[in-house]
């Protein structure tokens, strides 16, 4: 017998997500970089100033690879997921994981065409997990720039399976829903960085306007004492640290990124990113110093290792 949940898997999985074309400018790329803490400790840091300023003009600034995680939000800037067959309480929605493949460096400005689809749906009993995959093309050249797979963790929306076997659908098998094993050895590098109390208010200007990150009442209804930081903002801090320490400042060395959000972060907390090298894979973990808790773990695959490592 069907359990009492608002998810109708057949109806939901039959949905086609609309194609979307949009444009970003150098200003968007720079505001994003500031939102994930670039130059936050040192306004003239040579590794990071290039994301916000170039002496020959803004068209020469570089774009962080994590910028492209925002492309999916062009589908719905409120971060709400309103689809037939997906009845859930939007206040209980959390970002669970993000996986991205980067095929080309991003221009400082571009027109992007997004093709998105529902890539997964899983019944975890107390929660439902929905995966949305977005392929982003340069609208002018037609080149595929990147793929983003976003996992939404819908608390309270599980229990929709019809049989004793929990419902689990995955369109692609390339990345399982899993945690990364953190090595027991000393990390190769550790970087401590500070988020500002206003970090989420700045980050949201990049296009992720979910009020969970700005509205105290919405945050309370979701079970938090105050607005929390966007998971993608924490991820941006972590990958920025990896680019600095492992890629020696070259953002184009990043190939794939996987992040699993383990616990919420409050703006103003200190993020400690630990990095381990395993061949061309960097395993990483982010801890909040004040609470000594792991909030994020994952990996970053790089194209090659910097010769100075
Ligand atoms: C029309 C299309 C629109 C598209 C629009 C795109 C917009 C995209 C919106 C998505 C963003 C939503 C808005 C929110 C944004 C945020 O940034 S929220 C902040 C960042 N996220 C967090 O802070 C979450 C931190 N994590 C946690 O709090 C916890 O890990 C959890 C998610 C609440 C889970 O904890 P818990 O309930 O204790 O789970 P478990 O009992 O450990 O596990 C149960 C099963 O679920 C699997 N699982 C656990 N955690 C995750 C995870 N993070 N991601 C994916 N799956 C997870 C776990 O493996 C268990 O499964 P089984 O092993 O099979 O039992």
UniProtKB/TrEMBL annotation:
Question: Which one of the record's GO molecular function terms can you name?
Answer: 3-hydroxyacyl-CoA dehydratase activity
Q: Which top-rank group of organisms is this from?
A: Eukaryota
Q: Which residues cross the membrane?
A: none
An annotated GO BP: fatty acid beta-oxidation, unsaturated, even number
The Peroxisomal multifunctional enzyme type 2-like N-terminal domain is annotated at: 22-156
Q: Which InterPro entries match?
A: HotDog_dom_sf, MaoC-like_dom, MFE-2_N
Protein name as catalogued? Uncharacterized protein
**Annotated organism of origin:** Citrus clementina (Clementine)
């Amino acid at each position: 017998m069907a359990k009492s949940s608002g998810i109708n898997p057949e109806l939901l999985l039959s949905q086609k997500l609309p194609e979307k074309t949009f444009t970003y400018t150098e200003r968007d790329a720079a505001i994003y970089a500031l939102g994930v803490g670039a130059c936050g400790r040192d306004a003239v840091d040579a590794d990071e100033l290039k994301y916000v300023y170039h002496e020959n003009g803004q068209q020469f600034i570089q774009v962080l690879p994590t910028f492209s995680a925002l492309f999916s939000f062009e589908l719905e800037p409120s971060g709400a997921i309103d689809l037939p067959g997906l009845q859930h309480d939007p206040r209980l929605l959390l970002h669970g994981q993000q996986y991205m493949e980067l095929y080309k460096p991003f221009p400082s400005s571009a027109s992007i065409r997004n093709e998105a689809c529902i890539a997964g749906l899983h019944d975890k009993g107390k929660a439902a997990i929905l995966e949305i995959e977005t392929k982003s093309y340069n609208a002018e050249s037609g080149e595929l720039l990147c793929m983003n797979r976003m996992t939404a963790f819908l608390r309270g929306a599980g229990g929709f399976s019809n049989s004793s076997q929990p419902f689990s659908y995955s369109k692609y098998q390339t990345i399982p829903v899993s945690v990364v094993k953190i090595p027991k050895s000393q990390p190769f590098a550790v970087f401590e960085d500070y988020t500002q109390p206003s970090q989420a208010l700045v980050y949201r200007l990049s296009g992720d306007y979910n009020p969970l990150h700005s509205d105290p009442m919405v945050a309370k209804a979701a079970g938090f004492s105050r607005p929390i930081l966007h998971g993608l903002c924490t991820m941006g801090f972590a990958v920025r640290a990896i680019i600095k320490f492992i890629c020696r400042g070259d953002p184009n060395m990043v190939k794939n990124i996987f992040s699993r959000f383990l616990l919420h972060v409050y703006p103003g907390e200190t993020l400690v990113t630990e990095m381990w090298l395993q061949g061309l894979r960097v395993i990483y973990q982010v801890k909040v110093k004040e609470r000594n808790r792991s909030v994020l773990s994952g990996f970053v695959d790089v194209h090659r290792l910097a010769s100075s490592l």
